[in-house]
Amino acid sequence: MKKLSLMALVSAFIMTANLYSFDLIEDTFDFIFDDLAKIIGIVVIIAAGVYIFKKYVNKKDSNSDDR
Q1: In whole angstroms, what is the distance from residue 42 CA to residue 48 CA?
Q2: Cα separation of 35 and 46, whole Å?
Q3: What is the C-alpha separation between 5 and 3, in angstroms, rounded?
Q4: With a threshold of 0.70, does the pTM exceed it?
């Protein structure tokens, strides 16, 4: 009986460890891809803002040179 309960305890521990490691791997991928997507989105928005700002400044400079 002791051997059976010990085997059940060890089996439960192994299954719990495996489930936890799969959850850890899934959480890691979710963290990487979600945060990477946010960072790329922020960089694209900043780049678009800088492009529009430079275009506006260059247009303003070219208008003042014509006068």
Answers
A1: 10
A2: 16
A3: 6
A4: no
